[in-house]
C-alpha cells in the first residue's frame, strides 16, 4: 500500500511522481537526512556511533574487495572496464580543472574525486590513510550528499525509463 495507491498514474508526470514517492529508498534517504540535519544533537549523543561507523566502513571495504578480480573484469567485460575508466578519467579531469579554477587545495580535489568515484567510505579511508584527519568529516558529507542526489535522480531516471 502506501502512497502508490493514492497518487494516480494517469499521465507520465503523475506516474513519475508515483514512482518517486512510492520508493522506499527515497523515504529512507529523506528521513535519514532530516534526522541528521535537524536532530544533530540526538545523532551526536548516540553512544558507540564512531566505533560502529568505523567497523562498518572496514566491513564495507572488505566485502567490496574480496570478490574483485581485475583479470576477470578485463577479460570478460572489457567494454564495462573501458566505460568505467572513461567515467573515472572525466571525473578526475573535471575535479582537478575546477579545483585549479577555483583555487582549491590539491587534497580537497583528490578527496572530492575519490568521494565521487568510490563514495564516502573510500574518501574517508583515503583521508585517514594520508593523515588528513580534518578532511574526514567534509569528505563523508560530500560523499553522502552524492548518495542522496544519486538516490533521487536514480529513482526519477528509472521511472522515466520504465525500470521501476
Plain-language structure description:
The chain is an all-alpha fold. 77% of the residues lie in helices and 0% in strands. The chain is built from nine helices and no strands. It has helices at residues 12-21, 24-38, 40-44, 49-65, 70-76, 78-101, 106-118, 120-129, 136-161. Helix 2 packs antiparallel against helix 9 and helix 8 runs antiparallel to helix 9 (136-161).
- Please identify the structural class as seen in this structure: mainly alpha
Distance between the termini: 16 Å
- Portion in helices: over 70%
Treating each run of at least 4 consecutive H or I residues as one helix, how many helices?
9
Mean pLDDT: 86
Main beta sheet, described? none
Shape: globular
Pick out the low-confidence regions. Answer: none
Mind sketching the topology for me?
Elements: H1 12-21, H2 24-38, H3 40-44, H4 49-65, H5 70-76, H6 78-101, H7 106-118, H8 120-129, H9 136-161
Helix pairs in contact: 1-9, 2-9, 6-7, 7-8, 7-9, 8-9
At a glance:
The chain is 77% helix and 0% strand.
Keywords:
globular, 9 helices, 164 residues, mainly alpha
Amino acid at each position: 500500500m502506501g502512497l502508490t495507491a493514492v497518487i494516480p498514474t494517469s499521465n507520465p508526470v503523475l506516474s513519475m511522481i508515483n514512482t518517486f514517492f512510492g520508493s522506499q529508498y527515497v523515504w529512507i534517504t529523506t528521513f535519514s537526512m532530516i534526522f541528521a540535519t535537524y536532530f544533530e544533537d540526538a545523532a551526536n549523543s548516540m553512544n558507540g556511533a564512531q566505533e560502529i561507523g568505523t567497523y562498518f566502513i572496514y566491513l564495507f571495504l572488505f566485502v567490496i574487495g574480496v570478490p574483485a578480480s581485475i583479470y576477470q573484469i578485463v577479460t570478460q567485460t572489457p567494454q564495462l572496464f573501458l566505460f568505467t575508466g572513461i567515467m573515472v578519467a572525466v571525473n578526475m579531469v573535471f575535479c582537478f580543472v575546477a579545483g585549479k579554477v577555483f583555487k582549491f587545495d590539491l587534497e580537497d580535489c583528490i578527496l572530492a574525486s575519490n568521494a565521487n568515484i568510490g563514495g564516502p567510505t573510500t574518501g574517508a579511508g583515503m583521508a585517514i590513510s594520508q593523515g588528513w584527519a580534518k578532511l574526514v568529516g567534509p569528505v563523508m558529507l560530500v560523499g553522502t550528499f552524492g548518495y542522496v542526489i544519486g538516490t533521487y535522480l536514480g529513482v526519477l531516471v528509472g521511472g522515466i525509463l520504465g525500470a521501476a
